[in-house]
Structure formats: C-alpha cells, structure tokens
Amino acid sequence: MPAQTVHDLAIGIDLGGTNAQIGLVDSCGQVVERLHMPTKAEDGSKHTITRLAEGIHAVCAAAAGTTPDAASAIGIGAAGSIDAATGTIVEAPNLRWTNVPLASMLHKELGDLPIVIDNDVNAAIAGEAAYGAARNERDVLGVWVGTGIGGGIILDGNLIRGPLGSAGEIGRTLLLSASPIGMQRLEDICSRASITRRLHELIQTNHPTSLRDALLASDNPRAFPAKLVAEAYAAGDELVRTVIDEAADLLGRGIASACTLLGTPLVVMGGGLTEALGQPYVDAIGASCNHHVLPRLQGHMRFCITALGPDAGIIGAATLSRKAHPATKSVR
User: Residue 294, class by beta-carbon neighbours within 10 Å (0-12 exposed, 13-18 middle, 19+ buried)?
Assistant: First the structure.
C-alpha cells in the first residue's frame, strides 16, 4: 500500500469463538489492511491475547510499515458478556473465558494505546448503523448466528447495553425450558455449533446425509465449517434441510419475542451461518417471526442480511473506539 494519510485511523478486532479478525479502519469505514486468524481458545486466554497482539503488529506492519501507535485506539468486539468499564470479559462461553482482563493484558503487550471492548454483536450492529444495512435506521435488532448466537439493540439511534452490559443477549433466551440442560436456550438449539452437533448425533443413529463422512472425520463437529453445511442445504440434503429449517423456525420465534418486547421493526442478521446460507435462511426466519410476533407487528417486520458481511465486527469495533477516543492519526 503506498504511503498515505488516513484520517482518524483505528484498529478493529472481531474476537469470535472460532476465528478472530483484525483490521485497520479509516473514518469512512474502509478497511485499509486486515488479518484473519484462528482464535485457538483452547490454548488459554494468555496465549490467545499474545497472538492478538502479534496480529495487531502484523496488520500495522503490512500497511506500509505502520505501527500500532499510529492509530487513535483499538476497538474489540468479543463474543460474550463484557464489563466495558474495566475492559474485562466477564463470561465468554465460546472462548471458555471467565473474568479475563482483556484490556489490561493487551496493554502489557502494546503499551498505553486506548482500548475499547464491547460485545461482538454490539460492535457489528454499530458498524451496520454507521455504514451498512442499518444506516439511517433508529430502531434495530441485530442477530448474529455463528459459533453461538448474539444480539445487539439500537433504540432511538442509541446502542443499548443496559446497566450491567447484558442487553441484547438474545442467544440466552429460554426457549424450551422442559428440555435437558444444554438444550433449553436459543443458542443451544439454533447456533451453527448446535446444528452441526445435532447433525453429528443424528448420523450416529443412521440418519443419511451427504455430510456423513466429513462430519464423522471432523475432530470437532461443533467447529464444522458453515460453508459445507450451506452447500449441503443448497443441494437439497434432506437431513440438513430438516435440521436447519427447524432451527430457523425456532430462531424466528425467539426473535418474535424480542421484537414484541422492543418494538424494533428491522432485524439485521449476520454471522458465519447466516452469510453462508444466505437469503433463503433469513427469509425462513423472517416468516417465522412475522407469524409469531405481536399481531400489530405481523407483516411489518423487515429482515435483511448484513451489508458489511464479515467486516461488520472490525468496522463496528473501530467505530466504537473512534467515538470513545477521537483523534487524527497518519499512516507512516
């Protein structure tokens, strides 16, 4: 990349349960440079955070020799419950982290560069509101379906976090209370990890599917690629279609409850499974939601896919950090 000045450069990180993305983002929402890396949460938080710091340096070096201190701040959207005031990951089931002081640990690696941490879907929907599918919208529910299920809420133009930072955690919605533990919440049933887990279990009882060999050979069925599931769905695999359609219906019911409570007329959907399955999946969720939502809202609910795609998290995280720490920096 030739030498250039980037007004108000910020670093955005989308820290998911399976993968992490790091990007340099300018004030127009353009990603100047990026890095995609596996999270490797199984190695423990210390190793993951050290690798994040190394990734930040690598991304900045790739941008014509930029260093992290050329940015105004770092924004991180992390999958889980966040204490934004202290920069702590309170609970992140998909990372298997509890009370991890992410901001202070990164400060030890990177120095005093300001760090802003928020929930990953809060960051993503903030990005969509600034530059994507929710631009100029005042009331929006964001639902991201990937390893887990996360949500973000914008009401009257403001990102809603709640006094304890728990607002938007739609994946924790209790949906089937009579089911065994681990099969009760929306995230337990409708996430990409739960769908591939269920497919793997059904294969064990001789249900036929084109994914049989690939799933049985997988070291971790929960981490089975969404792309392969989407290809089987598009090809008409009966078992895959049944499992995904059932999950889409249940997710639509959960979203209907949330939208009835919040009164949000627009739902923006993203995440690895959503983006892999595309519009038919979103349409199925929307149809279920419109059927089960408050009658006054039926037929008026709008569903769309993220306009920023896999960049929503890094663009949104950078946007939140820029708002918290406005400055003008140059790529050097």
Answer: middle
Q: Average of pLDDT values for 208-220?
A: 94
Provide the pLDDT for residue 326: 77
Angle between helices 279-292 and 238-262 (to 10 degrees): 50
pLDDT at 64: 66
Two domains, one topology: 10-125+311-324 and 135-306: yes
CATH 2.60.40.10 matches 10-125+311-324: no
pLDDT in tens, 217-273: 998 888 899 999 999 999 999 999 999 999 999 999 999 999 999 999 999 999 999
118 class by beta-carbon count within 10 Å (0-12 exposed, 13-18 middle, 19+ buried): buried
Distance CA 91, CA 150 (A): 13
Whole-Å CA distances, 283 to 186, 192, 231: 18, 17, 18
Given a contact cutoff of 8 angstroms between Cβ atoms, the answer to whether 282 and 304 are in contact is: yes
Phi/psi at 81 (nearest 5 deg)?
-90, 130
Which CATH number does the domain 135-306 belong to among 3.30.260.10, 3.20.20.80, 3.30.70.20, 3.30.420.40? 3.30.420.40
| Beta strand 88-92 pairing with 97-100 | antiparallel
The predicted-structure confidence for 39-92, as pLDDT tens digits, reads as follows 888 888 999 999 999 999 999 888 867 778 778 899 999 988 899 889 999 988
Q: Is residue 294 scored above 80 in pLDDT?
A: yes
Which own/partner pairs from 89-96 qualify as long-range (CB within 8 Å, at least 24 positions apart)?
89/45, 89/117, 90/165, 92/17, 93/17, 93/148, 94/16, 94/17, 94/18, 94/41, 94/147, 94/148, 94/193, 95/15, 95/17, 95/39, 95/41, 95/45, 95/48, 96/41, 96/42
| 8 Å CB contact between 67 and 60 | yes
The residue ranges of every structural domain in the chain are 10-125+311-324, 135-306
Confidence band, pLDDT 50/70/90 cuts, at residue 327: low
